[in-house]
Design brief:
heterodimer; A: 596 residues; alpha+beta; Heat Shock Protein 90; 5-stranded mixed beta sheet; two-stranded antiparallel sheet; B: 123 residues; alpha/beta; 5-stranded parallel beta sheet; 5 strands; 45% helix; 15% strand
Chain lengths: 596, 123
């Protein structure tokens, strides 16, 4: 597997991507301005701000010109040496411009120019050989990093969904929701049934009896119930691309600790990374504030840093219950070493002590170091490898977030099924009976009126009895879903013979998914020909493939999350995708055919 | 022609329409049979239930019938209270189609009126 920072010996080649360089320049501008405004030139704030603005603007221009030039001469990839060369090309002129500006604004005199240049040169070389290559390498790898994280997020959600849909809690919820809907329908049906007793009076004329019953039939609350359930099931969430990305980010952030803990244990970053990072972060301070003697005196701190880093690496490789806690504390300790060193200087060598603001050295620096290290740990190759190999467990917070989504999807799907049932089975029959009653009155037929009233009682006495149907085998289920389309469109079906006789509730779910995709393809896509294949995939999973010739094909990423998307997510635990090839649109969905 | 998946409702509506002197030349629960019959016999008006169980709904069938026979009158029955509850689905109905809430069917004359109105549709 290709790594983000491969060894120099392997002579890697990197994409020249400057996109992160622009953000880096602005960050650098702020960082240098901070040091200059508060430490180096506190008396010349206005000049410093002007210099920083001009210099940052210059850098942004020069980077974009360099980018255009390299593209023009078709240089898109370079090795480490090429990156360093680009780093020098950007950093040295940048220093010259900076020196010129410092002199022009009177912050350094003519005689100080040479010494200022030499003083800054080493910082600039660090930028040329370290920061600029790092930013370009990361920029070039960003798509891969994002793709890996997106892919990771998808598998995380699938795992979380699977955990939830197979949990006892979810099964209990299913039973509860089913019972709630039954209770509600029974309650409304009973209410209507009780109302009919006013009309079930043989002392009244047929017309009066019919009038009473028709009044209740027209104003019955079952219609409102069906309507409410239908509205609930049609709630659509519309997400822009930005909202979808923020949603991903939010899910990943919920998972960050578990991801960090996993990769830190599996492939802990090497000790030299801690030491090098400490050095490059501290180095500008050496240049700006330390004498050679002070630098030499402080160098042993790097030995301490390296020893602590080695210990971190050892603890992580050794594992153990508190390994992460220990290493977090040790990482913070490394961040605090400059502060501890400053205190020791103040205590034992006060003449050599340089006092930095406490907020910076005791808070910002240690926390910044801690965050940097965690970030490096996450984006290093081991983390990407772990993501790719699906060795991640879902965190409790992620499970909680996904659990809510799954439960809402289930409730919405059930609302839809009950709305269809009440509408198609109960209300339709009530309307037909109402017609029958009217006819009986028109013909002055008391017997038929009573028969109509009795049939109303039968419907309302047990209104839920036709809701649940016994599961059919896969072949029969698919036929029941697709045969009704005959005459409207051409559908070809290929079912793995080994699956044809499978019969359980999951088969019904598969049928529902097929119906959803087919009806969508016909109604919104205008398809005329559909091919459906159901194949064994990876026991107990099966793969459903539906290919159509839709003139208005479905978008690859749905911008609106309606009931259809929710049903697909619920049934497949999110394992479905849409692809386009020429005039064909293909939906692929993987689901388990084992009863949950 | 009448297409309604619920047998009880279908037979009741059919007999009520016949009682009003209308000639119900065909009734079925199946979309494919409805299409086949329309191809052969070109009925003046199709009365369709919106909810036809699994598979296509009344709107899908209405669109197909209008494609096959542009001048056919179409009346769609639904148990929903008002058109807004069917929301965008109603906008998918072919032009000239009539729409009737089922509880109004108890007064069969309302349905008959809609049938006559729908048959006046011209392309």
């Amino acid at each position: 597997m290709r790594t983000i920072f491969p060894s120099i010996k392997s002579k890697p080649v990197f994409n020249l991507d400057f996109s992160l360089a622009y953000a880096g320049i602005i960050f650098l501008g702020f960082s240098i301005a901070g040091t200059e405004l508060f430490q180096l030139y506190p008396e010349n704030k206005a000049e410093i701000i002007e210099i920083r603005l001009i210099h940052t603007f210059y850098l942004l221009i020069i980077v974009s010109l360099t980018q255009v030039f390299l593209r023009k001469i078709h240089i898109n990839n370079v090795g480490y040496a090429g990156l360093a060369l680009i780093g020098l090309w950007l950093a040295i002129p940048s220093l010259l411009v900076r020196v010129f500006l410092m002199e022009s604004f009177g912050l350094i005199s003519n005689s100080q120019v040479a010494s200022y240049f030499v003083e800054q040169l080493s910082i600039v070389l660090l930028q040329a050989f370290f920061w600029i290559p790092v930013v370009i390498i990361l920029g070039g790898q960003r798509s891969r990093i994002f793709e890996a994280f997106k892919d990771y997020e998808k598998r995380l959600v699938i795992t979380a969904r699977r955990n939830i849909t197979q949990s006892t809690e979810f099964n209990e919820l299913k039973k509860q929701v089913d019972q709630d809907y039954k209770d509600e329908l029974n309650m409304h049906a009973q209410l209507l049934l009780n109302s009919f007793t006013f009309g079930d009076n043989s002392n009244l004329s047929l017309g009066d009896r019919n009038e009473i019953i028709q009044k209740y039939l027209k104003t019955n609350t079952l219609r409102d119930l069906s309507s409410t359930l239908n509205q609930k099931s049609e709630t659509v969430s519309i997400h822009s691309k930005f909202e979808q990305d923020m949603h991903s980010l939010s899910l990943i952030s919920k998972q960050f600790n578990i991801l960090y803990n996993y990769v830190a244990r599996k492939t802990p970053i090497e000790a030299w990374v801690y030491t090098l990072l400490s050095f490059v972060l501290i180095y500008p301070n050496y240049v700006h504030f330390f004498t050679t003697k002070q630098i030499l005196l402080s160098l042993p701190a790097f030995l301490v840093i390296h020893l602590v880093a080695l210990q971190i690496n050892r603890v992580l490789r050794g594992g153990g219950k508190f390994a992460i806690l220990q290493t977090n504390l040790l990482t913070l300790l490394i961040g605090f070493i400059p502060f501890i060193e400053m205190l020791m200087f103040m205590l034992f060598l006060p003449n050599e002590a340089i006092e930095f603001p406490i907020v910076v050295i005791a808070i910002f620096y240690p926390l910044g170091f801690f965050v940097y290290i965690r970030f490096i740990q996450i984006i290093q190759p081991g983390a990407i490898g772990a993501i790719t190999n699906d060795e991640i467990y879902t965190s409790q917070s992620l499970n909680a977030a996904v659990s809510k989504i799954v439960k809402d999807e289930f409730k919405q799907s059930m609302s839809h099924q009950w709305a269809i049932y009440i509408h198609g089975k109960i209300l339709t029959r009530l309307a037909a009976t109402s017609l029958k009653l009217q006819q009986a009155v028109d013909k002055n037929d008391g017997e038929n009126l009573q028969a109509g009233l009795n049939s109303l009682k039968v419907i309302l006495d047990n209104p839920t009895k036709d809701f649940a149907q016994d599961p059919m085998n896969l072949k029969a289920e698919i036929a029941s879903r697709l045969d009704p389309w005959e005459g409207l469109i051409t559908i070809n079906v290929v079912i793995d013979p080994a699956l044809e006789m499978v019969s359980n509730d999951r088969v019904k779910d598969l049928g529902e998914v097929i119906e959803e995709i087919v009806s969508n393809s016909v109604r919104h896509g205008g398809s005329q020909n559909i091919l459906i294949k159901i194949t064994s995939f990876d026991h107990p999973d099966v793969q459903l493939m539906i290919e159509d010739d839709a003139v208005n094909p479905l978008p690859l990423v749905p911008a609106r999350i309606g009931l259809g998307t929710k049903i697909l997510n619920l049934v497949s635990d999110g394992r479905w995708s849409i692809s386009h090839l020429g005039a064909k649109t293909t939906v692929k969905l993987t689901m388990s055919l084992l009863d949950r | 022609m009448l297409v309604e998946d619920d047998e009880f409702t279908r037979s009741t509506v059919k007999s009520a329409l016949q009682g009003q002197g209308l000639n119900v030349i065909y009734d079925t629960a199946l979309v494919k049979d409805g299409i086949e019959f329309a191809k052969q016999n070109r009925p003046d008006v199709a009365v369709l239930d919106y909810n036809l169980g699994k598979g296509p709904n009344g709107i899908d069938l209405a669109n197909q019938l209008r494609k096959m026979q542009p001048e056919i009158g179409i009346v769609l029955l639904t148990a929903f209270l008002n058109p807004s509850e069917l929301d965008t689905k109603i906008s998918q109905l072919p032009a000239g189609s009539r729409y009737l809430v089922k509880h109004s069917v108890s007064n069969i004359k309302v349905l008959v009126k809609e049938i006559f109105e729908s048959s006046k549709y011209s392309i």
